Every structure is written in C-alpha cells, then in structure tokens.
C-alpha cells in the first residue's frame, strides 16, 4: 500500500535535512512524496506562508512532514506583514492538530553531551503533551500606538480532549502544568483536568505543578516526570527547555495530531493527517554548509511512521539505526563532533541496512 506524504522543506536547513529523510523512508516502504512551498519560501513566492493550495494538499495526504521555517529575513514587528510562523499556526488550525507530542529521552551515547551532569539526566524518559490550537497564540489580538493585548482563552472541551491524550499516553503519572495561582484560564484548566482524571483515568496518578516550579524541576530532577500536560504557550517553552536534556535541540522530534486517532499507543491516525517535524528551527547561520544535524528529522519521520501511518516496526527500525550510529561514535557539530549531514545520513543508513539483514 502506498502512502501519500506531503513534504514541506521550508527554510534555512530545512531542504538539507528533508532530502536524506526521504531517502531513508524509501528504504522502508512504498511512499509517494509531494513537495510544497511553506513558511518564508512561500512568502517569497506567494506573499503568504501557507497557501490554500498547500493546505488542501495537506488535507488530502496521509501525513505531513515538515522540516523548518523562519529566519531573520522575514522577521518583522509589523502586524500587517506575513511571518513564516503564521504558516504553522494556520496548518495546525486547518488540520485540527490540537495535540503536540514531544518525547524527551536522552540516549546513553549522548549523556556527556548534555549541559547537565550524567547522573542528573540518566534514566530520563518523559513526554510533553502540549495543547496546540488554543490559548494566547490564537486569542484575539489588539494593537494601538501605545498598547497591545493577546487574549488567552480556553474552553472546557479543548482542555478535556488534550487531557485525554495525555492520560492515554501516560505510563503511570501525568504532571499537569498551569499557573492557577494567577490565571483564570489555569484555574479552569486545573478543574477540568481533575474532572477528566477522576471520571476516566483514576488508575493514572495526577499531580498539578505550577509552570515556574515545572521549569526548575526539568533541570533539577527530570526523572520526576512521566508525562507533562500543559497549555499552548507553557508547552512551547517547556518542551524547548526539555530538549536540551538530550544534549542538543537538534535531537528532538515531534508529532502534532488531531481527529479521533493518532493515539500514542502507535495506532494510525483515524482523523486527519498528522504533522511531524523536528523541534529545532531553521538555523540560517549554518544553512548551505552541509553540517546540519538530520537526526531529529529522521526521528520525526519515525514518529510519522508510528503515530501517523501505523508502521510501528519501521519506526522502531529508524530509531534503532539512529541510536546505533550514535553508539558507534557519530557526532555532528552541535553534539561536539565534526560529522557532516551526508556523513550522519550514511551512518544511519548503514545501521538501517544492517538491522534489515
């Protein structure tokens, strides 16, 4: 069975890391790839970060694979001018992608690459579940010459569905992160999460953690966490912080899911297509040099195989190949080594082929 994958190379190092990822996928199954402009590249060509044509193509696909968006050439504080990040928000909203999953599991081969001591991160294996289509990023915005506002709004239904995703993904405990001592939206968040827990998931432990405390615990005691559940902006910040536990933000994949499927147990999405992308940015400072780390892109493809297409065996093969390459000494510049994008790809491909024999 062939799977239609829309690819969005985007900006900066995006095209450099998505090309070898497609080579990797072609070794694993029958895929049809359909490339579209997105982000800054689309602004340059079409005046908007996400065209209707691209969004329609994504809706028709089995999954969407995104590399990176943004860069200083499109930075602006003018609300009338398009920004690459608007494409991301539009894609999430257009596809109904309300749940962002970001696994954080430092690999033993990279323990010494983390800015934290080995004994602090050893054994860390957590998942950040971030609500993706509500909150301050999507609230009403106002701007005058002397003031500005961004409304943070959540409904009970929005909180219930992301809470179910987190409880369904958790092994034993959910840490729900909010700012209930200050924010009314957080007080509703805490009440609704508690209600979903008591009615539907009483076998899972639930704790409520204020966001500032959660930020401190992520660097002081990351093994404390199993599954972190949080709203849009807090999740954006905490998941980037958590990424550094792995030694480089260039190692962290993510999946954005919606509909009634895409469950974290590995089943294929039953709703619309999922969006799979590395957490890192477009790294314009190294674009075109051939030294970008493709591993987070590879691991995002693995999440696509598992959560988007139901191909758990193929996903495990990619993850094993990445870990095997790192165990054998592969290090890109962000990990303290000198391997190029091509060398990193070759090392992973070699391990993939060895695993298939």
What report would you give on this structure?
Residues 260-270 have low confidence and may be disordered. The protein has 357 residues and is α/β, with parallel strands linked by helices. The chain has two domains: 1-99 and 249-357, Isopropylmalate Dehydrogenase; 115-246, Isopropylmalate Dehydrogenase (3-Layer(aba) Sandwich). 40% of the residues lie in helices and 18% in strands. It has helices at residues 14-26, 40-46, 52-60, 84-95, 118-121, 156-169, 184-200, 211-220, 232-243, 295-308, 312-327, 341-356, and strands spanning 3-10, 31-35, 63-68, 97-104, 126-131, 141-143, 148-150, 173-178, 205-210, 227-230, 253-258, 274-278. The protein starts with a strand and ends with a helix. It contains twelve helices and twelve strands. The strands form two sheets. Strands 2-1-3-12-11-4-5-10-8-9 form a ten-stranded mixed beta sheet, with helices on both faces. A two-stranded antiparallel sheet has the order 6-7. Helix 1 runs parallel beside helix 12 (341-356) and helix 6 (156-169) crosses helix 7 (184-200).
Please describe the topology of this protein.
Elements: E1 3-10, H1 14-26, E2 31-35, H2 40-46, H3 52-60, E3 63-68, H4 84-95, E4 97-104, H5 118-121, E5 126-131, E6 141-143, E7 148-150, H6 156-169, E8 173-178, H7 184-200, E9 205-210, H8 211-220, E10 227-230, H9 232-243, E11 253-258, E12 274-278, H10 295-308, H11 312-327, H12 341-356
Parallel strand pairs: 1-2, 1-3, 3-12, 5-10, 8-9, 8-10
Antiparallel strand pairs: 4-5, 4-11, 6-7, 11-12
Helix pairs in contact: 1-12, 6-7, 8-9, 10-11, 11-12
